[in-house]
Amino acid sequence: MDFRSDTVTQPTEAMRIAMANAIVGDDVYGDDPTINALEIWAAEHHGFEAALFTSSGTQANLLGLMSHCERGDEYLCGQQAHNYKFEGGGAAVLGSIQPQPIQNEPDGTLCLKALEAAIKPDDIHFAQTKLLSLENTIGGKVLPLAYLKQAREFTHKHNLQLHLDGARVYNAAVALNVDIKEISCYFDSMTICLSKGLSAPVGSLLLGNKAFINKARRIRKMLGGGMRQAGILAAAGKLALTEQVEQLKVDHENAQLLAHGLNQLSAFDVNLEQVQTNIVLTSVAEHINMMQLQRDLRKDGIIISNGNPLRLVLHNDISKNDVYVLLEKLAAYTA
Ligand SMILES: *Cc1c(COP(=O)(O)O)cnc(C)c1O
């Protein structure tokens, strides 16, 4: 039972069969029918002109940023944004793109007033602000649809592009009980991780218009991300989007179960308002030795991260019963 992340999910049985039987070709030549079919289907399904299969979410975000921005341009993002904080500074290192982070609000949004103040005037002293990048879900929290609409109006008004790091955007759609297009419709570009809660072994998608995706395809090759018989991966990726979205609902229910269970234990404290999808953040009482806790749980076949707040993530390979087992073990620490 691995609660560290939803990236630990094993491919489903159906994925393994589809991978074994995938018809493949050399995708750098554009010859992989399974990749081509996934890209065409994904573009249509999410309301974009084109799509690109990438090796990871990090690569998809980097391609997105580098396709929107040139050297010396700037993108606005959250201080907690994955593509600012957790991607090795890739946009700056590899794209010469300057990030302009803004403090995230408690609900994960970025204050439009603060963003407006951060846009650089057209003056030779400044980088040129080109893009706003949002993230949904962010820390397991869902950005409200009304906010997305405001962000779209804001970017139109200021002539900025709007990108969504949608690594877990399906968790947002499931939590809101809306079609994915009700979220994607606001963005010029969007990424989706197929390898998190959706259980594919490898891969993400970048979505956008044709010119944007053509540019991203060129940069992907430059960065060494051109893959050959990658249809093996796309076969699983297609099933991630067609077969695994329903599972997210179960993951969200299990997250609620875990969060409420933790709040019954004196050593743990979860802000339930923040538990909106498959991620539970709990503070841990001072007297608990996290290293010891980690080691003890490991002996029982339970893997958790180390941290306070402690992040616990629900996914396809964690059942309701597993949640009860974890809660029972943690109860012993609370005495
Ligand atoms: C995981 C994640 C990524 C990066 O995906 P990788 O496939 O791990 O590179 C990007 N953005 C967000 C919000 C993520 O959670």
UniProtKB/TrEMBL annotation:
The keyword Nucleotidyltransferase does not apply. The modification N6-(pyridoxal phosphate)lysine is found at residue 196. GO terms for cellular component: cytosol. Residues 2-282 form the Aromatic amino acid beta-eliminating lyase/threonine aldolase domain. One of its GO terms (molecular function) is L-allo-threonine aldolase activity. It is an enzyme of class 4 (lyase). Keywords: Lyase, Pyridoxal phosphate. GO terms for biological process: glycine biosynthetic process; L-threonine catabolic process. Its cofactor is pyridoxal 5'-phosphate. Its EC number is 4.1.2.48. It comes from the Bacteria. Belongs to the threonine aldolase family. Homotetramer. NCBIfam families: GntG_guanitoxin, PRK10534.1. This is Low-specificity L-threonine aldolase. It comes from Vibrio casei.
